[in-house]
Write a structure and sequence with these properties.
It is a single chain. This protein is an all-alpha fold. The protein folds into 3 domains: 236 residues, no CATH class; 126 residues, no CATH class; 213 residues, Orthogonal Bundle (Hypothetical protein af1432), CATH 1.10.3210. It contains 31 helices and 6 strands. Strands 1-6 form a two-stranded antiparallel ribbon. It has a two-stranded antiparallel ribbon with strand order 2-5. Strands 3-4 form a two-stranded antiparallel ribbon. Helix 1 packs antiparallel against helix 2 and helix 14 runs antiparallel to helix 17. The longest helix has 33 residues. The two termini are 88 Å apart. The N terminus is likely disordered.
Length: 735
């Protein structure tokens, strides 16, 4: 990896002085040396195992996850502060998200628990004790009454020893003077009333009303006033509160009260601390709840965001591998894609840092998100650009608290720019895409202000709209500036680069015109044929046309040995052996590859040059070899092109077009039926020879190509009238 990055830096430095893809002139030695050095670097980069290594591909994805996480985690997490109670805040702090206010919730729960009255439980021992005292008194009374030897004073003294405290002598005298019937009623009623009063909860506050409660019970009894007063005094002496404080029930009740108190929330946007305000325990607790203190790491959010980024990158990686494009085959292209994403992430982080420093949050709308979509669309296709637009919009939203407005604006502008760059004709497409992105940003920001009302003033809304327009325009400007350098450093072929190569003023094409004019015109016709065939089957027509222009440049080394450049005179192949002719003719492929590498043409063009003959047989020279040596049959495989066979539909199209143009040009009377028969024969021969086995071209594609060839060739080789010779007409007239 380190060797690759060093080579890329050196390669970029060599291109710092010139961006023109022209051949170094013969009178400039320094430019020659620069070109040779660049070619060596290109060969070095393309030969590194870096390009195909699966480990390196996994490392790029892993590094992309790490870079995105490292750049944005600081923006996703709330800004951290170091405060203590009593300190004065130097800025106004607003809650970046929702959170439970622990301090306020705890205070509310404490207040609710304090409002819960103590809980008491009925103690049955109080009732049992009161009943036991009464029963003991009544038993003692009966015992005293049964002893006839005791005087009244002795009886009172004995009875007083068994009586409950507080019972005066009048009550005891009433018990001793009662008849047996009255005594039984008095004792039974007393015990029953005690059981009634103490059978349920009887608190200390109830004790104040004990006389009234007992009197209410006595009213219902058929007893005289004297006995009623005695019973009342006796019961008041034994009745006591039967409720005992229960700490367990009290605690349970208070816990239930605390649980019923809802959480107090800090809402996003609430002002936690104003500038110049003292830090209190409550505000410090709120900042702790919001994870805004430096000594309070939020491990859950950090882990969640890591998984969020990891999932997004995995989704992108799966999509790339399933599409099986050139980015899935060359790690250098994947590295370019990762760098483009990293550039956008850096811009998001810079905008968030500026917002934290005091700029308006709408500054994110000025980030040129559409720039990434434009370049990804041109480098790797529209589908990957669309998915990448969604990825970047999600990351932008995450940096701003996962808000919807940044996501919507970034996504809409990027999608518009992607659609604008789906068909490229010139570099002006960047400015058109930039203006389109600016317009979409303007509309998207306006929609967000209508859907999400805010206190923003008209001036603030105007600034927001201006930011969106600036973001779209910057996307076009940055794309124009960065595109040539990225094309050169990473050797990525775009339609813009191909359009530049198709210019007839390209130095190699001008050389071809001057040194091999027949081959030049042959290449132009092949280019027209290839472009029409590619459009018919949905292949890349521009690659076909440019590849056809350059596929035979190797013939410039020995132009006279190729029939299209032989204008009269002898055929030099008549003077050499068939084997030597074979070497001369087949060498135009390797010679062409050397020239294309010298002029730094992209890989799709060099691939077409290498594959446009596949492993076909040079039948003319094979038959000539058979005639030269009739005693030994030469091996037919020794007269095949070295290959490889076409690996893409574009290479297969150029192969067939090359053969069709040469065959039709050699026909004496190229009528439409004869041309069509010749085309179908050439295609049949290529199929039977297995030349189209390694490319994804179908029989239906070949049939469509035949119709496209007919339309183009009928315009080139149409029948012409024979114009009379003016001199002959003049001679006939003079006769």
């Amino acid at each position: 990896m380190r060797r690759t990055l060093c080579a890329i830096r050196l390669f970029n430095a060599l291109f710092a002085h010139t961006r023109q893809k022209t051949r170094p002139t013969s009178d400039d030695g320094s430019m020659k040396r620069t070109a040779r050095t660049q070619n060596r670097l290109i060969q070095f980069l393309t030969s590194l195992p870096f390009h195909k290594s699966r480990r390196m591909r996994a490392a790029i994805y892993g590094e992309l996850v790490v870079v995105i996480y490292a750049l944005l985690i600081g923006a996703v997490l709330p800004q951290r502060y170091s405060f203590s109670v009593g300190q004065v805040s130097q800025s106004t702090i607003v809650a970046p998200t929702d959170a439970v206010d622990t301090y306020a919730t705890q205070q509310a729960r404490i207040a609710a628990a304090q409002q819960v009255s103590p809980r008491y439980d009925v103690n049955p021992a109080i009732e049992q004790s009161a009943v036991s005292i009464l029963e003991r008194l009544f038993v003692t009374t009966q015992t005293v009454l049964s002893d006839k030897s005791l005087t009244m004073a002795e009886r009172l003294l004995t009875l007083k020893a068994s009586a409950p405290p507080g019972v005066d002598g009048s009550v005891l005298t009433t018990l001793l003077q009662a008849t047996p019937l009255e005594f039984n009623e008095l004792s039974g009623d007393s015990i029953r009333i005690v059981q009634t009063v103490l059978g349920g909860p009887f608190s200390a506050s109830d004790m104040k009303n004990a006389a009234m409660m007992i009197d209410q019970q006595l009213v219902t009894l058929d007893v005289n006033i004297k006995d009623r007063l005695a019973i009342a005094k006796l019961l008041l002496a034994v009745v006591k509160p039967n409720l005992v404080y229960d700490p367990v029930l009290t605690q349970q009740a208070r816990l239930n009260a605390e649980r019923n108190v809802p959480d107090v929330w800090i809402n996003r946007g609430d002002v936690i601390l104003r500038r110049g305000q003292l830090v209190t325990p409550a505000t410090l607790s709120q900042m702790k709840d919001l994870k805004m203190l430096k000594n309070e790491p939020d491990y859950a959010m950090e882990a969640g965001y890591l998984l969020f980024v990891l999932l997004l990158v995995i989704a992108i990686g799966i999509f790339i591998q399933m599409r099986r494009g050139r980015i899935a085959k060359d790690n250098l292209h994947l590295l370019l894609y990762a760098l483009l994403l990293t550039l956008l992430i850096v811009l998001i982080r810079v905008s968030k840092t500026a917002v934290n420093a005091g700029f308006a949050p709408s500054l994110v709308d000025a980030v040129p998100f559409a720039m990434g979509s434009m370049m990804i669309s041109l480098f790797f296709g529209t589908s990957l650009a669309l998915l990448s637009s969604l990825l970047v919009a999600l990351l932008a939203s995450s940096a701003y608290g996962f808000a919807f407005a940044p996501f919507f604006v970034a996504l809409m502008g990027s999608l518009g720019a992607t659609m604008a760059t789906s068909r490229v004709q010139n570099r002006g497409v960047f400015m058109r895409a930039g203006f389109l992105a600016a317009g979409i940003n303007f509309a998207a920001i306006g929609i967000m202000h209508l859907l999400i009302p805010s206190s923003t003033s008209i001036r603030g809304v105007s600034y927001d709209l201006l930011y969106g327009v600036v973001g779209g325009l910057l996307s076009g400007i940055f794309s124009i500036g960065l595109m040539p350098y990225l094309e050169t450093i990473f050797r990525v072929t775009t339609h813009i680069g191909l359009l530049e190569l198709a210019n007839p003023n390209h130095p190699l094409l001008r050389r071809l015109l001057l040194e091999a004019p027949g081959t030049y015109h042959h290449s132009l016709i092949v280019g027209n044929l290839a472009e029409s065939a590619a459009e018919a089957i949905g292949a890349d027509a521009l690659i076909c046309r440019v590849g056809a222009y350059f596929h035979d440049v190797g013939k410039m080394r020995r132009p006279a040995f190729f029939i299209e450049n032989q204008i009269g005179g002898d055929n030099p192949h008549d003077k050499v052996a068939a084997s030597l002719s074979y070497l001369i003719v087949t060498s135009h492929v390797s010679d062409g590859l050397a020239m294309l590498n010298e002029y730094r043409l992209p890989e799709p063009v060099t691939a077409i040059c290498a594959q446009h003959h596949g492993t076909t047989v040079l039948w003319y020279f094979y038959n000539k070899a058979v005639e030269e040596d009739k005693h030994a049959q030469p091996d037919i495989d020794q007269f095949r092109y070295p290959g490889p066979k076409p690996q893409s539909r574009e290479a297969a199209i150029v192969m067939i077009c090359d053969a069709v143009e040469a065959a039709v040009r050699s026909m004496q009377k190229p009528t439409p039926p004869r041309i069509e028969a010749m085309i179908r024969k050439i295609i049949k021969d290529r199929l039977q020879d297995g030349q189209l086995d390694q490319c994804d071209i179908t029989l239906r594609d070949l049939d469509k190509m035949t119709a496209a060839f007919m339309r183009t060739l009928q315009g080139v080789y149409h029948e012409r009238i024979e114009y009379p010779d003016p001199e002959k007409l003049l001679a006939q007239k003079n006769r």
